[in-house]
From TrEMBL:
Alphabetized SUPFAM superfamilies for the sequence: ALDH-like
Domain Aldehyde dehydrogenase: 8-470
Organism, as annotated: Bacillus timonensis
Protein name: NAD-dependent succinate-semialdehyde dehydrogenase
Keyword terms of this UniProt record: Oxidoreductase
Length: 474
């Protein structure tokens, strides 16, 4: 179902979209599949709702968000089941993601009250100078399937807190989780038109979003390729844009690191969500002296992971999102092996009775080198390549990626070394001995082609605000 102007509706054409469970390859259910017409209806509704929503006090907008957070909390188990069915991550991971999604709603429910302007010291005694912060306006959001709820609330909560009204297009693979979020908006009685959901053709929906002059802001999370296209298409009207795009995170392990901690860090950054995370570890640089020992230790730990349908208990790694993703992982592994990579564990599709989905074995490859695709392209799968290095200077010379600059990780017990390396990392996020450097109050986002703008904390709110300077002659 689509949600436009406070009402659930089918698509105008009657077209539907089949939602598939990647663990079983079976159809879950069909949902309405809209296009440019429905997007225009949603934009019209958001445009009409904007002046009233903008005039509400921050406290009032925050109270709506508090209600949404409470409903998400209440429905966590139900939403987790839906999310796991449509995208595969194990239930405990889905529950954790919903917790993160709620953190953002909680944070911006509070932050809505803290949108401050400024009074500037005038350079002329007969003037009074003020800076007001106002909502950008109608906002169009496009989100991916890998975090089907957190990517929605990380955009919509600050947009709503700032006073913007919104049209969301979720990924076609995960519309059911988005519908659940909108059920919460509906139950929280957000005024008509403040939030709108259009599921359907990406090109038609995005085409209307970028060409309709009523849309003032485009916020996107997804691939760098699509992000660039959205920026180009928005340029004709100079719309504001925020882009959370691809990444290629290095994970550095120095010889003085706590190796157990580093292994567990890789378990989280590489194998959670089956490696389908923008801040996933893509390249593991390990000091040569310990590289062999570390590779063995990691492979042993990785071999304990249980693979299967995330709806079942005790599963650590679910399926990849679809066959195309599976083929890409397979191609990267074969390419690495053909360039002298040494397989320490995994390395093939899972062939188990009863498993019909797109499953790939968690894989560790030693002796990785610059000729491998996996060292530069986003694999988006459960494959961990290890590259040995000798000196700190050498690894610093290698870790920065030409194109991407989203997340990076460094494990060492030497504080001075950690500080030196941190300064050299051209990444928007740096985790020092920390595999989860993501919290609601911190800026999340990338340098270079990993994005424009930040989400989270006060930084995320700024993306939905404009400064208005007022000069009064007194
Ligand atoms: P994607 O193909 O770019 O899709 C993301 C969203 O864009 C989906 O809603 C998709 O709709 C839509 N889309 C596809 N083609 C479009 C077009 N021509 N115009 C407008 N919208 C279009 O990315 P993905 O494969 O779903 O997600 C993986 C990528 O997202 C990775 O590169 C990952 O690193 C990145 N990501 C980044 C962050 C971050 O915060 N930096 C977070 C998560 C993911 P359909 O589903 O209908 O095709």
């Amino acid at each position: 179902m689509l949600y436009i102007n406070g009402e659930w509706k089918e698509s105008n054409s009657g077209k539907t979209l089949e939602v598939i469970n990647p663990a079983t390859s079976e159809r879950i259910q069909d949902v309405a599949f809209g296009g440019s017409e429905e997007t225009k209806e949603a934009i019209d509704a958001a445009t009409e709702a904007f002046p009233t929503w903008k005039k509400k006090t921050g406290k009032e907008r925050g109270q709506y968000l508090e209600k949404v957070a409470a409903l998400l909390r209440e429905k966590t188990e139900e939403i987790a089941g839906v999310m796991t069915s449509e995208m595969g991550k194990p239930i405990p991971e889905a529950i954790r993601e919903i917790g993160i999604a709620i953190d953002y709603v909680d944070w911006y429910a509070e932050e809505a009250k803290r949108i401050y302007g400024e009074t500037l010291t005038p350079s002329h005694s007969d003037k009074h100078l003020m800076v007001l912060r106002e909502p950008v306006g109608v906002t169009a959001a496009i989100t991916p399937w890998n975090f089907p709820i957190a990517m929605i609330t990380r955009k919509l909560a600050p947009a709503l807190a700032a006073g913007c009204t919104v049209i969301l297009k979720p990924a076609s693979a995960t519309p059911l989780t988005a519908i659940k979020v909108f059920e919460c908006f509906h139950e929280a009685e957000l005024p008509k038109g403040v939030v709108n959901l259009v599921i359907g053709s990406a090109s038609e929906i995005a085409g209307e979003m970028t060409s309709n002059p009523d849309v003032k802001k485009i916020t996107f999370t997804g691939s760098t390729e699509v992000g660039k296209k959205l920026i180009q298409d928005s340029a004709a009207q100079l719309k504001k844009v925020s882009m959370e795009l691809g990444g290629h995170a290095p994970f550095i392990v120095f010889e003085d690191a706590d190796l157990d901690l580093a292994v567990e860090g890789i378990m989280l950054t590489k194998f959670k969500n089956c490696g389908q995370t923008c801040i996933s570890t893509n390249r593991i640089y390990v000091a040569e002296k310990i590289a062999e020992q570390f590779g063995q230790k990691l492979a042993e730990r990785v071999s304990t992971l249980s693979i299967g349908n995330g709806l079942e208990e005790g599963i650590d790694v679910g399926p990849l999102i679809d066959r195309k993703a599976l083929e890409k992982v397979e191609e990267h592994v074969q390419d690495a092996l053909s360039h002298n990579g040494k397989l320490l564990c995994g390395g093939k599709q899972v062939a188990k009775e009863g498993l019909k989905g797109s499953f790939y074995e968690p894989t560790v490859i030693a002796g990785a080198n610059e000729n491998m695709k996996i060292l530069t392209e986003e694999t988006f799968g459960p494959v961990a390549p290890i590259i040995p290095f000798v000196t700190e200077e050498e690894v610093i010379g290698k870790v920065n990626h030409k194109q991407y600059g989203l997340a990076s990780y460094c494990y060492t017990k030497d504080l001075s070394r950690a500080m030196r390396v941190m300064r050299e990392l051209d990444y928007g996020i740096v985790g020092i001995n920390d595999p989860t450097p993501v919290v609601a109050q911190a800026p999340f986002g990338g340098m270079k082609e990993s994005g424009i703008g930040r989400e989270g904390g006060k930084y995320g709110l700024e993306e939905y605000l404009e400064e208005k300077f007022v000069s009064i002659q007194i």
